[in-house]
Automatic annotation (TrEMBL):
The keyword GTP-binding does not apply. This is Pentatricopeptide repeat-containing protein. It comes from Brassica napus (Rape). Keywords: Repeat. Gene3D superfamilies: Tetratricopeptide repeat domain.
Length: 636
């Protein structure tokens, strides 16, 4: 027999082994090629293995992996003896390829549904965006007395949107006899409570866990950070290391981000030193968080240096540095990096477009239109963050109609999107349209105005001098919308009252505020007191402003103007002397102009500019009067 097998192998008649087909299927699963799946299927038919349930299931996986759903369904019907694995593979494959209706029909036709079948339907509904159907499926699963697994609870925990449902799932975990030593479910519960904002519940879950892992500590650190206790979060990171747990890339990125929020450069550099020691800085998420940390700690040059040292063109790194340039107001550099990243074949995403569009200033409108066209070409223009940045750019440059076209064509509108259009219309003197958009938001289900929304409405009323509407909205902030007025809201209503001459009412509001008013609240009252010539009120307001901001030069300058208008020269000289003695610098204006592909910035009283000597020589020629010209001609 052995010699007969050797003769068959010599003539190419040797049957392929199961090991051969197993390796072939594994490689085909990696390639996801429909043609290769059909070749494997044909070979299995040729050698007579396709009727074997195991190989039928493997080939079924191969077809679904390559998105050949029709071929997979034909093969599924041809399998003579289907087992639970066959049905579950087909069910999972249909859901992965978005054949939800077919999956529902198949699920109903299954002769026997085990926990894997129910979990597949629950996760399928979740991935397709039907969380309520997933919850109903879980209730049906309990009705059929199918015991949930860890995967069931961890999936359901990601779908919870209210505390009552979260507590019910938590109770089900305990009643089902879930082991406290298994961290998968308990980590999911911690993350669920963190998303719901119930941080004390998340902490109690952590304390009751017996078997904690790195994910548990990461969730705890993130919980402390989200609850506002960022220093406590850093302390938990220290405790985590003292207890012998090894931080991973997610731990480091979270810790560096916390240092970024605290603007604590010292602790951030310590965390980065530990990252370098443990070899985690090469991770794009960690290095991106480091770039963001340097930027927010006003060390943009460190962020640029780190980006260059990494020598890696990655979308996360590019997005971090582009956002850093945008945050510091370097729109031209952000645009240059965006173009350079495109040349390096770095595919931009919605965060890239959002950061670039936010960085563009008034003199870069043409570049903004080109970025908009590219976003449309790549299909990102309808994404909500990108659309929000597009509207912000157009409002900033005064192109209100272009911004409103973006507003109309965007379907998914979040609160930030509404706030952008309300504030943008207000600042472009479109008060009626801004208030109309605000009324649309009020009837929109699921969204409630926040402090930014109401600030935009007050700005619209202020610019249009809508006194009654402004007072009504300001009075209804706490009662109707549940928003406590802050300094900015008080400053806006005070400015509105001062614009229409109601200075006493504005002063009363400033005096009766529940907290100490900022200098921005006193500024319009100070201006108004000068207009009506009320010296006593101006002096009292200026004194209050200097109490809150002693380093501000604005009150001194206003008093100097007031004394000069009333011919009180001695007081004017005294204030000028006090201003010089305090060594306070006055705010200096600047202007920008775009020439070809560059943006030039000119500050007030700046003599040294590009081509300065030639510019001044030309200005001197233009300033000659006719007498100087005649004198020059006679001299010649």
């Amino acid at each position: 027999m052995f010699s007969q097998h050797r003769r068959r192998r010599a003539h190419g008649l040797c049957m392929p082994s199961s090991f051969y087909f197993s390796r072939l299927v594994d490689r085909s699963l990696l390639s996801k090629c429909p043609t290769l799946a059909r070749i494997v299927h044909a070979q299995l038919v040729k050698v007579g293995l396709i009727d074997n349930t195991f190989w039928g299931n493997r080939c079924l996986q191969l077809y679904f992996k390559s998105s050949s759903v029709i071929d997979a369904l034909q093969l599924f019907e041809a399998i003579p003896e289907k087992n639970n694995i066959s049905w579950n593979v087909c069910l999972k494959g249909l859901l992965k390829n978005d054949y939800l209706n077919h999956a529902l029909y198949l699920f109903e036709e299954m002769p026997e549904r085990d926990a894997v079948s129910w979990n597949t339907m629950i996760s399928g509904f979740a991935s397709c965006g039907y969380p309520r159907n997933a919850m109903r499926t879980f209730l049906d699963m309990q009705r059929y007395v199918i015991r949930p697994t860890e995967f069931t609870f961890s999936t359901l925990a990601t779908l919870v949107t209210c505390l009552r449902h979260g507590e019910q799932i938590h109770g089900n975990v305990i009643c089902s006899g879930g082991s406290l030593s298994s961290p998968v479910v308990w980590n999911s519960l911690m993350d669920m409570y963190r998303r719901l904002g119930v941080f004390d519940y998340a902490l109690s879950v952590f304390l009751t866990m017996e078997g904690r892992d790195v994910i548990s500590w990461n969730s705890l650190i993130l919980c402390c950070s989200d609850s506002g206790n960022k220093e406590v979060a850093l302390d938990q990171f220290r405790v985590m290391r003292e207890m012998g747990y090894q931080p991973d890339e997610y731990t480091f990125s979270t810790v560096v981000s916390i240092c970024s929020d605290l603007q604590d450069l010292c602790k951030g550099e310590q965390a980065l030193a530990l990252c370098i020691k443990m070899g985690s800085l090469s991770n794009a998420v960690v290095s991106g968080a480091a770039i963001d940390m340097f930027s927010k700690c006003n060390r943009l040059e460190y962020a640029v240096k780190l980006f260059r040292q990494l020598e890696k063109w990655d979308s996360v790194l590019c997005n971090s540095l582009i956002a850093s340039y945008s945050w510091h107001g370097f729109g031209e550099e952000a645009l240059k990096l965006f173009i350079l990243a495109m040349r390096q074949r770095v595919q931009p995403d919605k965060f890239t477009f959002s950061s670039v569009l936010s960085s563009l200033n008034v003199v870069m409108v043409d570049h903004g239109a080109q970025v908009h066209s590219l976003a449309v070409k790549l299909g990102f223009d309808l994404d909500t963050p990108v659309a929000t940045s597009l509207m912000e750019m157009y409002f900033k440059t005064g192109l209100v109609d272009s911004a409103m076209r973006v507003f109309v064509t965007t379907d998914e509108k979040d609160l930030l999107f509404w706030n952008t259009v309300i504030m943008g219309l207000a600042r472009n003197s479109r008060a009626d349209e801004s208030l109309a958009i605000f009324r649309q938001l009020l009837i929109h289900r699921g969204l409630k105005p926040d402090k930014v929304t109401l600030m935009g409405v007050l700005v619209a009323c202020c610019y249009a001098n809508f006194v009654n509407q402004g007072i009504q909205i300001f009075s209804s902030m706490k009662k109707v919308h549940g928003v406590d007025p802050e300094n900015e809201h008080y400053a806006c209503i005070v400015d509105l009252l001062c614009r229409v001459g109601m200075i006493n009412e504005a002063n009363d509001i400033a005096e009766k505020m529940p907290f100490e008013p900022s200098s921005h609240i006193w500024e319009p009252i100070l201006y108004a007191s000068i207009d009506i010539g009320d010296t006593r009120l101006a002096e009292r307001v200026a004194e209050r402003m200097l109490e809150s901001e002693p380093k501000s030069s604005f009150p001194y300058l206003v008093l100097i103007k007031l004394y000069e208008m009333t011919w009180r020269w001695e007081n004017s000289v005294r204030i000028r002397y006090a201003l010089d003695k305090q060594k306070l610098k006055c705010a200096q204006g600047s202007s920008k102009i775009g020439i070809k592909h560059s943006v030039y910035c000119f500050e007030a009283n700046q003599l040294q500019i590009h081509g300065g000597h030639d510019t001044w020589a030309t200005l001197e020629l233009l300033s000659w009067d006719s007498d100087d010209q005649r004198s020059a001609e006679q001299f010649v």
